[in-house]
């Protein structure tokens, strides 16, 4: 009896491990294939157009010069009208267009600090105004979304490893950062931008929030960021905008 058990046990064990590895392997392959498929159709979910947003930013800058407040109001009012719908129609997109001070939240990420006004958030896109009257500098983060940073007021400098000259972006220009790439950037005094990201937004959130846990311990700003982002993402999901 004892002899037989001893003989068979190792065989059965290795069989168990083999089937377990097969199951995990298959599940993992399915997951990878699912992600690759979703990634291949991500453009279907996009609501905004980077070319339109840049012409809106340029118009606002041309009309209002360096008056940040009027520029932001111009952008919000245009977005509201552009994406407005007739009564009783399904909204085309959920936008947060309130601009009172309590709608701005502090953001610390990659060593840079500024305030942001979250206009739109979904699984595949976000649109914010980001900037600081003081200036700031940091790491862009390596992201799963393309980033279009439309300068509204002031100047931003940037460079990627290997470049020995800086890139300079002024009002109306767009600093494009393709997903997966990183740069060091510096926003000078009084620099504000309309930032549009498209791709996969949820994997970007840890970068945007890590500094709360490892540096600032600014729980109220963390709470507001998560609350507004979650609320806007859910509002968009409910109207079928992923
Ligand atoms: C919004 O801005 C775009 C781009 O500048 C412009 O073509 C369009 O006419 C504006 N729409 C409204 C309602 O102001
Ligand atoms: C904004 O523009 C006005 C008029 O061109 C100029 O007088 C003022 O110094 C500028 N302000 C800043 C902060 O650049």
From TrEMBL:
Recorded metabolic or biological pathway in which this protein acts: Steroid metabolism; ergosterol biosynthesis
Key words of the record: Endoplasmic reticulum, Membrane, Transmembrane, Transmembrane helix
Cell compartment(s), UniProt: Endoplasmic reticulum membrane
Protein name: C-8 sterol isomerase
Organism expressing this protein natively: Clathrus columnatus
EC number in record: 5.-.-.-
InterPro entries given in the database record: ERG2_sigma1_rcpt-like
Main location: endoplasmic reticulum
Pfam assignment, any one: ERG2_Sigma1R
Domain of life, source organism: Eukaryota
GO annotation, cellular component aspect: endoplasmic reticulum membrane
Record family assignment: Belongs to the ERG2 family.
GO biological process, alphabetically ordered: ergosterol biosynthetic process
Lineage: Eukaryota, Fungi, Dikarya, Basidiomycota, Agaricomycotina
